[in-house]
Amino acid sequence: MRRIGVFVCHCGTNIGGTVDVERVAEEMGKYPGVAFATDYKYMCSDPGQNLIKEAIREHSLDGVVVSACSPAMHEVTFRRTTESAGVNPYQCEIANIREQVSWVHQDDPEAATLKAIETIRTIVEKVQYNESLVPFYLPLVKRALVVGGGVAGMTAALDIADAGYPVVLVERADRLGGNMARLSSAYVNFDDAGGLLDSTLERVTHHPNIQVLTNAELNEVGGYVGNFVVRVNARSNGATEPFSFDVGAIIVATGYELYAKENLGEYGGGRYPDVIDALQFEQMLASEDGLRRPSDGKVPKEVVWVQCAGSRDPALHKSYCSKICCMYVAKQTIAYKQRVPDGQAYVMYIDIRSQGRGYEEFVQTAMEDFDVLYLRGKASKVFADQGSGQVAVWSVDTLTSQNIEVEADLVVLATAVVPSSGSVELGQTIRTGIDEHGFFSEAHPKLRPVESNTAGVYLAGAAHFPKDIPETVAQASGAASKVLGLFAQRQMVQEPTVAYVDPELCSACGLCVPACPYEARAMHPWRSIATVNAALCQGCGACAVACPNKASKVRNFTTQQVMLMMDAYL
Amino acid sequence: MKTMTATAAMPIAVTDFTFAQAVQAQSHEPIMRCFYCQKCSIGCPTAFAMDYQPAQVLKMVQLGQKEALFKCSAIWLCIGCETCGTRCPNDIRINNVMDVLKEMALEEGVKPAEKEVYALHRSFLNSIKRFGRVHELTMIVEYVLRVPLTMLDKVGIGLALIIKGKVLHFWSAIKERDKVRELFRRAGV
User: Fold this and answer.
1) CA distance B103 to chain A (A)
2) CB spacing of A402 vs B1 below 8 angstroms
C-alpha cells in the first residue's frame, strides 16, 4: 500500500473562503492509501513547504497530492519541495481546487467542498500508480539560425555572436538591411536610418561568429529544440546550392511588406501615378534631385496622407491597426514641409495613436510648427480631376461634420503593414503557428512574447506584428537572450512524462504516426513496432487514444490511471 | 480645399489655407494644435448663444472658412473671460483668436453680426480715446446713439446708478490724455 500525503491549501480566502478546507482534509485522511492529510493557510509559502517536507519524513510518505491552485502555477514549486525531502518529484501531483473549484462555485460552498473532495480523490488514485521518473538529457547544438537580415535579424545575430556563439544569418534578398534600408530617416529625431543601419551592417559582415548567406532561403527544418537540422538553398549565378547544417535555435525575423496599394481601388492605387505608398514617398524624400512627383516631375504643393489605408477595415481589408503609420506619417509630413516650406500637408486619419517616448509631442510638432492640417475622417475616394493634373480627395471632417475635398498634387497612402510574402509557407516549414493574417504567433501574449509556440523558435520584429525600430530592436535582443539562455545549458533537459510503446502489444498498424501533432512518431526501420522520439514528444496523449492495442502509453498518464481517476469521480 | 456640409453631395465653398496662417501670425496662438477636445466649448459661459462653438471657430480657421467666420455671431459674443484659454490642453487662448477675427472682419468691411456688442466696443474705446479713461455717461450716450431704443428697459437701472453716484456726472480727463491718444494712433484705430 502506498503512503500518500494530502495537503489542502486555503490560498488565503481564495479557496478557504468557499471550500470547507478542514473538512476536506479530514475526509481525505480517511481515504484508502492516504497516510496523512492536513490543511494550511498558504502551502506555497516557506512554512507551508516545510510542513510538506516534515510530513514526508515523519509519516514516511511516498506520494504527495497538493490541493491548491492550477499546476501551471506551482507544480514546479511543490515537485522541488518533494524532491528535497527525498521523494521522486514525479510522485507529486497537484489537485486544482482553486481555478476549477472555489473560484467557479463561490455561490455554493457545500457543492464546492464535495467537488474538492472528489477532485483530490482522483489525483490520489493517479499517484497510486505514478512511476518514479528522471528527466533525460539530450545534446545541444550551440549554433543559431537567424532568418531575415533586416534590423531585427542583424541585431539578434550580433547579440548572439557577441556572446561567443556561431550564427548563420539567412537573407532572401541580395543584400542585408531589409525595409529599414529603404527609409529616409527615423522618427522622432530624424536620425539617418541608413547611417544607423550601416554601423550594424558593418559589424555583422565582419563578425567572426556570423556567417551571412544572401540570396538564400530556408527550405527545410527537421529535428527539435537544441538539435534542428536545416536546409538552406542559396542562389548564385542562376544555380541553387543547398546547405545543410545543425542549429540549436532559430530566430524568425522575416519582417513586413506594405499591403499593395492596388487593393485600394477607391483611392486610385495603381491607377494614378501620383497616388503612392509610404515607402515610395520615403524614396522621394531620399532622392537627390529634390522632391518630385512621379507623373510630371513637378514639386507637389498640396499633399494628402491617407491613414488606415487597408488597416482597421475588417470588412474589406485588414482588421488590425498597423501601429507604425501614425508616427511615420507625422515624420513624412515634417520632412515634406522642410523640403517644400510653401507646400500644404493634409493628414486624413481616424485616430492618432502615438504611444512611445516623445511620440505624441512629435505629432503635435507636425501640427503646430509645420502647420500640417489633421482632418479626422476616413477618406472616401480619390479620383482624377479632369485637366488640372491633380487628383481630388474626398473625405470628411467628422469633428465638424463637413465634407472635404482637397485638390492634391500627390496622395500618399499609409497602407497596412502585412507579413513578408512566404510567411505562411515558412511557418509550415518551421512548424510554428501563424495567425489569421500570416504573422508569427507568440507562445503567450503577455509572458512569452518573444517565443514562438515551437520550442527553440523565437520571434523578432515585424514578422510577429507591425513594430517600429526601437520595438523591433528590443524584441530582437529579447529573442537573442532567450537563445543565449538555452545555449547556457550544458545539455537539453527533457521532461520524462512522454509517450512510450510497449513492444509486446504493438502490432505496427501505424495509426499513431499521423495522429502525432509533433512528428515524434515513426515506424521502426526493421522491427515491426512504432517508435517515439522522446525529444519531440510533448506528452499530449494523441497516440495513446489512436492506438487500438493500448500499446501506446504516456508515462504517469496511463490508461489504467485514467480509468481509476474516472472511477474516483463517478 | 473645398468644404461642404455633410449632407450636401457636392462641394459648396472654395477656401484657402493661408487664412489659418494669417490668423496664427496675427494672434500668436497655435491654432493648428487644436485636436478638437471641445473643452473650450463646454466651459464657455456664452457658447449657448453662439452660432458656432469656440472649438468650431478654431476648426473653421484651420479649414479657411473666412466668410462664415466674419459673418458669425460667435466672435462678437465672446466676452474674453479666458476660461477657454485657461483650460485648453494645447494652450490656445481662443479669445485672442476671436479678437483677431473681429479685427479682420472689420477690416474687410463685414457688418458685425451683433451690432449692440460692436456698438459697446466702439463706445468704450472712443470714451478712452476722448478722456484717457472711461466716462460712463458719455459712453452710454454714444452707445444709445449708435443703437437707439436698445437701452429703454434699462433706464430705471441707469437712474438708480446716477442717484447713488455710481455714474460720473461730469467728465474728468486724465492728465496726459495725449499719450493715450498716441497709443490709439500707433494701434491705428
Assistant:
1) 23
2) no
**For the domain that residue A476 is a member of, what is the CATH number?**
3.50.50.60
- CB-based contact, A404 to chain B, within 8 Å: yes
Q: What is the pLDDT of residue B11?
A: 43
| B87: Cβ contacts below 8 Å, ≥ 6 apart | B39, B40, B43
Domain ranges of chain B: 2-107, 115-187
Residues A382 and A269 both lie in one domain: yes
Same domain, A163 and A101: no
CA distance A393 to chain B (A): 10
What's the number of domains chain A is made of? 4
What pLDDT does B15 receive? 54
Quick one: pLDDT at residue B7? 45
Class of B2-107 in CATH: mainly alpha
If asked whether residues A408 and A266 sit together in one domain, one would say yes
A-B CB pairs within 8 A amount to: 63
pLDDT tens track for B111-143 = 999 999 999 999 999 999 988 988 888 888 899
Domain annotation covers residue A565: no
In this predicted structure, what is the pLDDT of residue B9? 46
Q: Model pTM? A: 0.77
Structure-block grid coordinates of residue A71: 499546476
The residue ranges of chain A whose pLDDT is under 50 are none
Residues of chain B contacting residue A400, judged by C-beta atoms under 8 Å apart: 56, 59-60, 63
List of chain A residues whose C-beta atoms are within 8 Å of the C-beta of residue B11: 403, 405
